[in-house]
Every structure is written in C-alpha cells, then in structure tokens.
Amino acid sequence: MTKQKSETLDLRTERILDALVREYTKTAHPIGSLELLRCARLDVSPATIRNELLELCERGFLEQPHTSAGRVPTDKGYRFFVDHLSEEGDELNSSEAALLARIFEIRHEDEFMREFVQVLSEISGAFAAVALRDKDFMYETGFSEVADEPEFEDPARAREFGELVDRLGSGIREFFDKFARDEERIFIGEENPLGFPSYSMIVSQWHHPRGFEGFFTLVGPKRTDYAKHKAVVRRVKKIQKQ
C-alpha cells in the first residue's frame, strides 16, 4: 500500500500519538494526560504530556470532545498511525496465524469462502465480507461483533451500519472493481468510499492456490483496531507467498 504524504512528528510525539490511539481503541473513552503517561511509558512530566497533547490538537491529529475530557484521534491522527506507527511489533499470535494458514488448505471454493470470512471476522473482531472476482455475491459475517461496540449504544448507529452493509452487498462487484489494481487500501472516516464517515474499511486482494481469487474487506467503527487488521492482511499475503 502506498503511504500518503503527511506531516512529520518527532519520536516522542510519535510515541504519545501511538499510545493514545492504541489506548482509545481499547477503551473507547477520551484519553487524559495521566492515563497517557502510564500507557506511553515516557520519562517526562504530566505537564510535558499536556503540552504535547495540546500541540497534537493544534496540528489536527487529536481533538477534545468536551472541555474537561481527554483527547481522541481525528481522521488525520488515525491516518498517521496507520501509515507510520501500526506495523512494528504488530503481528498475529501463533494460533491466529495457524488458523488462517489452514483455511488456505481448503480445496473447495464454497467451503473456503465460508470458512475464510468466518476466520477473518473472528481474528479481527470486525465485520468481514469476502467475494470472488467478477461475482455479484459476497459472503459476510460479524455484524453482531461490531454491533457490540460502545458506538452502537445509539440505535441510530446500528441502523446506519446496517445501511452500510446493505450498500456494500448490493454493489459488491462494482465496489471491489474500483480497487482491482490495489493490493491493499485503508479508508478512514471521511475517506469511506461508501459514504459513511463514522466507519473505516480495509480492502485487500486474496489468491487461492487452486486458482480462484477475489477480495475481502474488514469494516468497523472509526475507532477500529487498524494494527490488528493490517496484521491480518500481512499474514494473508505471507501465506500466499509460501
């Protein structure tokens, strides 16, 4: 995947942004300076952390939802994390890697597709969809996993996500055809090609040893586990090269 041009950050600021994105992904609540000091494990004062957070807000990487609250990443902050911070040390564990590898040993096309989409959702915790190239049908699962996220305490958000899934399913061939030349694309918030800025998507190709091929996508709220999703994509690519 080609990385987009972006601003540079010094090493300490990168570590602070990295820690904040990861902690917010886990907790779904704004992250304050004291909590971040513990997560980032930096030998600096709380005042230094607060100054760094203020600068990251001023530069558009973070925002403060409420006056007394901590900070959360913006689309720009997530993009920097995805492009520069989310690969080092982020890999699937041995059982997850082995599970994915076994899926590609399945020889029958339909069985492979059903098992593949199930494992993608299970490992990533996201909604997953898998489609064959040049086909108008997708295998999907994981709606309930995504609907359990804190963002969906509002019923309107659950309905919105259902609309996203419906739109994806009704035009799956056209959707994947847009990315036929790209091995991997990550869409964050406003970049969402289906027009749902509260959600992010990763799209990647896959190739089976028996010759059939297609695309898969992982979809979740903007506060999704980008590091885990990218690790899934890297593992699929590695399996296909073996």
Automatic annotation (TrEMBL):
Gene3D superfamilies: 3.30.450.40, Winged helix-like DNA-binding domain superfamily/Winged helix DNA-binding domain (1.10.10.10). GO terms for molecular function: DNA binding. It comes from the Bacteria. The keyword Transmembrane does not apply. The keyword Transferase does not apply. Keywords: Repressor, Stress response, Transcription, Transcription regulation. One of its GO terms (biological process) is negative regulation of DNA-templated transcription. Residues 92-228 form the Heat-inducible transcription repressor HrcA C-terminal domain. Pfam families: HrcA. Coiled coil: none annotated. InterPro entries: GAF-like_dom_sf, HrcA, HrcA_C, WH-like_DNA-bd_sf, WH_DNA-bd_sf. PANTHER family: HEAT-INDUCIBLE TRANSCRIPTION REPRESSOR HRCA. This is Transcriptional regulator of heat shock protein.
